[in-house]
Write a structure and sequence with these properties.
single chain, alpha/beta, Glucose Oxidase, domain 1, Enzyme I, Chain A, domain 2, TIM Barrel, eight-stranded mixed sheet, eight-stranded parallel sheet, 21 helices, 45% helix, binds phosphoenolpyruvate, binds magnesium ion
């Protein structure tokens, strides 16, 4: 649990999963425009749409008897329609051949700076209105949606900044509280939040992390505190003080939520580390197991498990799933996951050392033993195989050859197994992404491990807490790799799943869906949240 102190902007308390909101990044728009008339027309049309949207916000505020809020949108409408504002934008387009986006950004920023230099706090707060207007016009110019479309059913919104228009567009039933790094008691946002009776806390010291999305937080603006990953004791005392019932009593699946069907066109699977996680409730809630991290039978054991015990575990899980697919990832030992009985020599750089498939080749007997157990269990349910840490096509071909040897020997022993067992590849290194087209020719499906992919792409140790601020699974470079992987899988017509932690970050879901991802695999605790998120996603 982490605790941050801040300043109360609107009193109140909440306990709910976190939604880390990042505003859309406007694309580089410094391109020189040739047809300036057409660009001015584009601006005027976007500006009209923005005016209409502001009018709708104004009417909505009036309908909910909030004249104070309505006045904010009325003032924004006037600022948008201000002749100086509109002329400055069109001059930049016609004389400097600037794109409409760049002209709007520059003009709004110059107006915002003028407001910021004024003495009165009320005038200063108009700078945020100016930026809000610009962001609305640019969204219409770029035909972009705000990414909180994929916000979970109920949440506390954490962000660096939030514009009044962004809050206005958030579904008011979903937001239970706001915590920002930057804002002020005089901001229009504070007025809007107060109008909605939304607890609002200012925490300048909060080191906002994208992976917080989905973790449960508590906030109490009277105590001026924010608790990330709130402990049960603190949650209990908050509940006692306020006597409220929070939407998620814990992150464990709620019966009602788990019984909801996965949205059409999507598959929501489980990441498990132990077959005992497969309770009947969890099985009913999912579309299968996306990754069974099979290391659990090996890590921390003083003795190597025998084939029989491996087979029993796999058979138990396959049978429990009653026809839903069980993807078993072959052992990914090495780096942070060590098996004492293997007596592996220490390595200088274990994350770059003998792990995953490399270790399987080093310890071929162990690999063969596991493949035998998996193939034998495949006669009892629907199983697929997944290979970790693949960096070369040759590693896949070598694994396939070993799998063929194992199949041959089972046939020789008259042991039944699924002859057509699917074989997938973990895409978790940049190398695998760059040769994804070649791998796709030899594999039945890809499963994207965004945890390692981020680590290896950004050169950041995923387990080093000091490096936390550098570890960003939504870094543009990682996002490019994710897009390339989806493209390669789609081109080859093979299966595609994402099973790293990014799969359960609801602010990223729509982006992943736009890239082509339809199958998400998450820990059981995130099934309800992801069902809600996928239900809101547009394909
Ligand atoms: C990953 O790397 O994203 C992944 C799913 O595998 P693990 O976290 O087990 O390394
Ligand atoms: Mg991994």
């Amino acid at each position: 649990m982490r605790v941050y102190s801040g300043k109360c902007l609107v009193e109140g308390a909440a306990i709910a999963p976190i939604f880390v909101y990042r505003p859309p990044q406007w694309e580089d728009c410094q391109t020189v425009v040739a047809d300036t008339q057409q660009e001015c027309e584009r601006y005027r049309s976007a500006s009209e749409k923005a005016a209409k949207a502001l009018q709708e916000r104004y009417t909505k505020a009036l309908q909910s008897n909030s004249e104070e809020q309505a006045a904010i949108f009325e003032a924004q409408q006037m600022m948008l329609e201000d002749e100086d504002f509109s002329e400055q934008i069109q001059t930049l387009i016609t004389e400097d051949h600037r794109s409409a986006v760049s002209a709007v950004m520059e003009t709004a920023e110059s107006f915002a700076q003028i407001f910021l230099q004024m003495d009165s706090d009320i005038m200063k707060s108009k700078a945020a209105d100016m930026r809000d207007i610009a962001s609305l016009v640019i969204r219409f110019l770029q035909d972009r949606q705000l990414i909180f479309d994929s916000m979970p059913a109920q949440c506390i919104v954490l962000a660096e900044r939030l514009l009044p228009g962004e809050l206005a567009e958030m579904d008011s039933r979903k937001v239970l509280g706001i915590v920002l790094k930057e804002s002020s008691a005089h901001s229009h946002l504070a007025v809007l939040a107060a109008g909605r009776k939304l607890p609002f806390l200012l925490c300048p010291d909060m080191d906002l992390q994208d992976y917080w999305t989905g973790q449960v937080a508590g906030m109490d603006s009277a105590q001026t505190k924010l608790w990330i990953d709130i402990s049960p004791e603190t949650a209990e005392s908050l509940r006692r003080n306020y006597q409220f019932t929070e939407p998620f009593a814990s992150t464990l699946p709620q019966k009602q939520d788990t019984q909801m069907a996965t949205a059409e066109g999507f598959k929501l699977c489980l990441n498990i580390g132990h077959p005992k996680e497969l309770t009947s409730e969890v099985i009913a809630a999912c579309d299968g197991v996306g990754v069974f991290r099979s290391e659990f039978q090996f890590i921390g054991k003083s003795q190597e498990p025998d084939e029989e015990s491996l087979f029993e575990d796999y058979r138990y899980a396959a049978e429990a799933l009653k026809g839903k697919t069980l993807v078993i990832r072959t052992i990914d030992i090495g780096a942070d996951k060590q098996a004492a009985f293997l007596h592996l020599p220490p390595e200088e750089n274990p994350a770059l050392g003998c792990r995953g498939i490399r270790l399987c080749f080093e310890k071929k007997d162990l690999f063969v033993k596991q493949l035998r157990a998996i193939l034998r269990a495949s006669a009892y349910g629907k199983i697929a195989l997944l290979l970790p840490m693949i960096c070369q096509v040759d590693e896949l071909l070598r694994s396939k050859a070993i799998l063929e040897e194992v199949k041959k020997s089972l046939r020789g022993e008259d042991i039944p197994f699924d002859e057509n067992i699917a074989l997938g590849v973990m895409i978790e290194t940049p190398a695998a992404v760059l040769i994804a087209d070649e791998l796709a020719r030899e594999a039945d499906f890809f499963s994207v491990g965004s945890n390692d992919l981020t680590q290896y792409c950004l050169a950041v140790d995923r387990d080093n807490r000091q490096m936390e601020s550098y570890y960003n699974a939504q870094h543009p470079a990682v996002m490019k790799l994710l897009k390339m992987t989806a493209q390669a899988a789609t081109d080859a017509g093979i299966g595609l799943c994402i099973c790293g932690e990014l799969a359960r970050v609801s602010s990223a879901t729509q982006i992943l869906v736009d890239m082509g991802y339809r199958q998400f695999s998450v820990s059981p605790a995130f099934i309800p949240l992801m069902k809600e998120t996928l239900a809101l996603c547009k394909r």
